């Protein structure tokens, strides 16, 4: 019997393997024919291919909308290709959103590990509240400011929310404020956009750690997620946004997420001033990290979450998903290796903290370029420059005596800026034509050289657009966050007292330290009482 079972298993596995090979062969043949077909359809200097893809997407959206009855229940007697396409989009984006939501845990562990133990509870609570406050405010009006706009160039170029139109699906009486009247089949898009937006405040949390008042933190989390970011997202990704109409490339938020949050983090740290003991006689002092294993675990979680963060950014299951997943993973690898090499050569230390930062800098640095640049260029050129830009940011902060405990401003602004500029040099015609095309509402020459990178035959026009968008986002972020943080400083609600900072936020504000060997919590102790140990 065992022999018969073994023979049966071998036969089955051989059959399955042969079947898999036949499927792969057919896939390769189909892929080759598809590439030839695409090449024929893509005429030089036009966006016929992109326009045909857009038309297919619009057809899918309309048919999906028609597939719902008046109660929002999905009913179709048979699954046609359009229905399956929507279902795949739905499942993929919900799964991506769940992994992106887990980024909050990664940020929390990384930040808690990088700070002193007397503030561990404080930073974890702030990360938790970023998710809570972010969901609250994004539901109220953040989503509407981002995307309640027709998306065809006729809407408000600076903010959504005024039109009764949806950019996603045909729908009568659309109202995204508090999701009061959105179609049932749009909720998955809100979920992904919310977790995307919630990362903004969490990025800044590392720059203000160990000395910001909790109420000031709640105010900035509310304003950043509900107002500052949504306007930037509308400019960049809404079809009505003025940067979008100019033809800016920002696939996964190198500009609208990372450069914006990086400059906001820098302004916040500048307004708060350095922590006590950070600068002695004008020279920076490295304050202790209380739990490096937390940092490493947080880095792995962020690495995992970054893959769907980038791959899911278009909110559809498009031709880029597999390439984005590989590109994100590999640039994390290259970033970690390059940062460790830098630490060994320059700082003479085999630094685990440096390797963690390198992994993150590698992924942040491709958030714009990933959509249009070849893989090899991002790994061998983009990521090393992104890592170096992080170290430049740290050097600049120390020179200016800006205390950013996690290096959030250096990690997000400078690699984000690198990604934007890098795109202007290395945007490949193959990916530009498929992802964006050669016509935008305010820039519709239809000429390939106007939209591709300088090193692939471009005339520098796209490089100029990328630099302009980066400059606009930098000025906007610095101005808006400067008013916010310096306004709170003028109201004397920004920074904790010197006594509270020295004692630690956990002891003063959160009921005691995160770690203790005591049997009774600090709040449970009775003054002057002694523990009865007779029962023991």
Indicate the topology.
Blueprint: H1 2-41, H2 48-66, H3 81-101, H4 103-114, H5 120-147, H6 187-205, H7 214-237, H8 242-246, H9 254-272, E1 279-280, E2 283-284, H10 292-311, H11 321-346, H12 352-364, H13 375-400, H14 408-426, H15 429-435, H16 461-490, H17 498-503, H18 505-509
Helix pairs in contact: 2-3, 3-6, 3-10, 4-5, 4-6, 4-10, 5-6, 5-7, 6-7, 6-9, 7-16, 9-14, 9-16, 10-11, 10-12, 11-12, 11-13, 12-13, 12-14, 13-14, 14-16
Which properties best describe this structure?
536 residues; mainly alpha; Ammonium transporter fold; two-stranded antiparallel ribbon; 18 helices; 2 strands; 63% helix; globular
- Number of β-strand runs: 2
- How many strands, which pairing sense, and closed or not: the largest β-sheet? 2 strands, antiparallel
Provide the structure class.
mainly alpha
Q: Count of helices?
A: 18
> Could you name the CATH homologous superfamily?
Ammonium transporter AmtB like domains
Give the topology string: H per helix, E per strand: HHHHHHHHHEEHHHHHHHHH
* Assigned CATH class: Mainly Alpha
Uncertain runs are 4-36, 39-47, 69-79
Mean pLDDT: 86
Alpha carbon gyration radius: 26 Å
**Distance N terminus to C terminus?**
61 Å
Number of separate structural domains: 1
Kindly identify the CATH topology.
Ammonium transporter fold
What coarse outline follows from CA principal-axis ratios? globular
